[in-house]
Design a protein that fits this description.
single chain; alpha+beta; 53% helix; 5-stranded mixed beta sheet
Length: 449
C-alpha cells in the first residue's frame, strides 16, 4: 500500500481538525439554542399560568369557560387541560390535545402525531392539597423544525469546511514544503563530481535553516573527505612511483649483460633497500587505515613518562651528538597507556625536531602533570612554520619542507599522521605551535579516573 505523502497527511490533519472544531462549535450552538428556547417557553408558560390562576380565581363555574376562552384566544399555539384532584377530566381547550400527558408537576417535552409540545403541570390553587390540576401545552413544532434545520446546516458546514480546509491545507503544505523539495533536488544532483553544491540557507524558513546548515556541513565534510581520499590515492601513487622506477631501471640495467656475482649481489642489496622502504610505507598506510576504522586498541598499563622519555633521549643521543644538538627533558607524570605506541609517537616528534634543528640548537621534551590531563611538548629552535601550513602538518604525505627528498622512509610524510592517530586512540589531542623561532608539538592525554 502506497504511503501518504507529507502534504496529504498535513491536508487531512487540517481537515480533521477543522471538522472537529466546527462540529464541536455547532453542537454547542445547537445546545445553547435549545436551552434558550426552553427558557423562553418556561417564561411564557409561567406567565400564562399566572394569568389563568388570576382569571379563574373567585369565578363562578358558569363564567369559567368564557374566561378560559378569552385567555387562550390570545395565543393560538397554547392549549389547556384541567383535571380534578382525582384525575377526572374537567376541561380541554382543543380536541387535538394528546390523551396521555405527564402528571408530574413541572416542565417537560412530548411528541405526538408529528407535533412537539412543551408541557407545564401545576396546581390551580398551590396552597390546597386537593386543588385541580392545570396542564398547559405549548406547540413548539416550529422550534424543533428550526433546530433540525440548524443540525443539517451544522453537518453541511462541517463537511464543506473540512473539504475547503483540505484543499487549502494541501496547497499550504505544498508551498511550505517547497524548501524540502529543493533539498531533495540538491541531494539528487550530488555526485563525486558535484560535492560543492550547497543549499541557500538565507532563503530557508527558520524551521529548516538548521537542517539546511547541517546538510551543507555534511556536504562540506563529504567534499573534504573525498578530496583527501583522492589526494591520498594520488600521493600513494606518487610515493611508490619512484622506488618502483628505481627497481625496474636497476634490474633492467643489471640484466642487460652478464655480470660478476658481486655485481648481482650489490644489485640485490640495492633492491632490498627499496623494497624495505616500500614495505615500511605499506605498513604505515595499513596502520593509518586501522586508525581510521577505530581498530587501534591501545593497551592500558601504568607508565612513568619520565622513564619513557629518558629511554628515547638515550636512543637519539648519538644522532643529536652528530648533529651538534642538545637534548633535554623536564617534568614527570604517570598515565595509563600503550608503551610501544606512545614511544612511536614521541620518536616521530623527536626525529622531526632533530632533523630541523640547526647546529648548536636545543630540543626540549617537557612533561607537565595537570589536574585532568598530562601535557607533553617537544619543541626545538629553528626556522618556523607558517600559519597557513600548521593545519595541514598532520595530513598524510604532506611535506612542509619542499626540499625533502623522495624515496626515504624518514621523509614519507606519514610520521605526524601516525602520531596523531596514536594520540587520538588514547583519547587525546595534538597540535603544533610555531612562533618566535620555536616550533612546539603539544600532546594532551586525559588522565584515567
Amino acid at each position: 500500500m502506497r504511503r501518504l505523502s507529507l502534504s496529504s497527511r498535513l491536508a487531512l490533519l487540517f481537515a480533521a481538525c477543522t471538522a472537529v472544531v466546527s462540529l464541536f462549535a455547532g453542537v454547542l450552538f445547537n445546545r445553547a439554542s435549545e436551552a434558550h428556547f426552553i427558557e423562553l417557553d418556561q417564561q411564557q408558560l409561567d406567565s400564562k399560568l399566572i394569568g389563568l390562576r388570576r382569571a379563574l380565581q373567585d369565578v363562578q363555574p358558569s363564567e369559567s369557560q368564557a374566561r378560559l376562552a378569552d385567555e387562550l384566544s390570545r395565543q393560538a399555539d397554547l392549549s389547556l387541560r384541567i383535571t380534578g384532584a382525582q384525575g377526572q377530566l374537567w376541561f380541554d381547550s382543543s380536541p387535538r390535545i394528546p390523551q396521555d400527558l405527564p402528571r408530574k408537576n413541572g416542565l417537560s417535552t412530548i411528541s405526538d402525531d408529528g407535533a412537539d409540545y412543551r408541557v407545564l403541570n401545576a396546581p390551580l390553587y398551590p396552597d390546597k392539597t386537593d386543588s385541580p390540576q392545570l396542564t398547559l401545552l405549548l406547540d413548539i413544532t416550529h422550534h424543533q423544525h428550526f433546530l433540525q434545520r440548524m443540525q443539517h446546516l451544522i453537518w453541511l458546514t462541517v463537511g464543506l469546511s473540512a473539504l475547503a480546509t483540505a484543499l487549502l491545507g494541501a496547497w499550504a503544505a505544498r508551498s511550505g514544503l517547497r524548501p524540502l523539495r529543493r533539498m531533495s533536488a540538491v541531494a539528487r544532483g550530488i555526485s563525486a563530481q558535484s560535492l560543492n553544491a550547497r543549499l541557500p540557507e538565507a532563503q530557508m524558513p527558520p524551521e529548516l535553516a538548521e537542517m539546511a546548515h547541517s546538510f551543507n556541513a555534511m556536504l562540506g565534510r563529504l567534499d573534504d573527505s573525498f578530496q583527501r581520499l583522492s589526494a591520498f590515492s594520488a600521493d600513494i601513487a606518487h610515493e611508490l612511483r619512484t622506488p618502483l622506477s628505481n627497481l625496474l631501471t636497476h634490474t633492467q640495467v643489471t640484466l642487460t649483460r652478464p655480470r660478476p656475482i658481486e655485481d648481482y649481489r650489490e644489485a640485490l642489496h640495492s633492491n632490498l633497500e627499496e623494497l624495505q622502504w616500500m614495505a615500511q610505507l605499506v605498513n604505515d598506510m595499513l596502520y593509518l587505515a586501522k586508525a581510521d576504522h577505530g581498530l587501534l586498541m591501545p593497551k592500558r598499563e601504568p607508565l612513568e613518562l619520565a622513564d619513557e622519555a629518558e629511554a628515547l633521549i638515550e636512543f637519539f643521543a648519538p644522532l643529536a651528538e652528530d648533529a651538534g644538538v642538545t637534548l633535554t627533558r623536564e617534568g614527570h607524570a604517570r598515565i595509563e597507556g600503550d608503551r610501544s605506541m606512545l614511544r612511536r609517537a614521541l620518536s616521530n616528534l623527536l626525529d622531526n625536531a632533530l632533523r630541523f634543528t640547526p647546529t648548536e640548537g636545543v630540543v626540549r621534551l617537557s612533561i607537565l602533570d595537570q589536574a585532568n590531563a598530562v601535557r607533553i611538548s617537544v619543541e626545538n629552535r629553528g626556522e618556523g612554520i607558517s600559519a597557513d601550513q600548521l593545519p595541514r602538518l598532520f595530513d598524510r604525505f604532506y611535506r612542509a619542507d619542499p626540499a625533502r627528498q623522495e624515496g626515504s622512509s624518514e621523509h614519507a610524510g606519514l610520521g605526524l599522521a601516525i602520531t596523531q592517530s596514536i594520540v587520538r586512540a588514547h583519547g587525546g589531542q595534538i597540535h603544533c605551535e610555531s612562533a618566535e623561532g620555536w616550533t612546539r608539538f603539544v600532546i594532551e592525554l586525559p588522565k584515567e579516573d
